[in-house]
Structures are given as C-alpha cells and as structure tokens.
Amino acid sequence: DLTENPLTTLPNGSFLGFTHLQLLAVPPVLECPGGSDAWQEVTVDGSGRWCQGQRNPCNGSVELAWPCPENSVCAPDGPGLVQCLCESPFHGYKCLREGTFPVLLFGGILGTATVSVSLLLWGTQRRKAKAL
C-alpha cells in the first residue's frame, strides 16, 4: 500500500523482480506500474488506485516491443517487465554460445599467467630488497 506516500512518479525498475505481486495500491494520481495492460483489474476510488492481478506479458496476448533472441524464452520480471532466459545448453550474449563454460581452460590459463608474473616480479624485485 503506497497510497499515503507523497510520490509524484514511480522510479523506473522499482518493481523489477516482483513476479508474484498481486495487489498494489498507489496514490490516485499515479498509474499502475507497467501501465493498465500489466494488470487484470485497475480501479480508482478516493483513497487510491488499486492494481490487481498481475498479467503475464509473455503469454502472447500482448505483443512484446523487444522479442527474445533465438535460443531463449520470455519470462515475467515484474509488472509489465520481461526478461529473456537462455534455454539449455545455450548461454552468453544473446544466448549464442552452446555448451558449458570452459572452466579448466580458463583456470589453467589464469593460473599459469599468475604464477609466471609472480615469479618474474619475485626475481626482479629480490635484488632491490637485498640492496637495502
């Protein structure tokens, strides 16, 4: 219930992730987050605007402005908000990479580089430490 708050606008992303929000009361001068299309029923009385029954924007009844890329599915992410989740086994930017992340290759290269730089610095800085 936000009816007694002196809000002039709702900040963008305030309800990001609120996928199970089913009833919201805002001051009567404000619109429901996501607009009227994001809710099954919007009623206004003297004390506030009541937004009831959050709709799923991914069900196909409302066309999305930005459809999800290939290899991903639409998922609700709050009132009027969507997110695109990669389908297995795809991952990465726009779900274009297939398979799993190469953990062993990444760890091996990172470990080798760290040990090499450490040995180089240890060898070059040892002489300066002995001189003091």
Helix residue percentage: 10-25%
Low-pLDDT stretches are: none
Q: Name the structural class.
A: alpha+beta
N-to-C order of helices and strands: EEEEEEEH
How far is the first residue's CA from the last residue's CA? 69 Å
Task: Walk me through the structure.
- The chain crosses the membrane at residues 101-122.
- One of its GO terms (biological process) is positive regulation of osteoblast differentiation.
- By secondary structure, the chain is an alpha+beta fold.
- The chain has a domain at 101-126.
- The chain contains 1 helix and 7 strands, in the order βββββββα.
- A 3-stranded antiparallel beta sheet has the order 1-3-2, with no helix packed on it. A two-stranded antiparallel sheet has the order 4-5. Strands 6-7 form a two-stranded antiparallel ribbon.
- The chain starts with 22 loop residues before the first strand and ends with a helix.
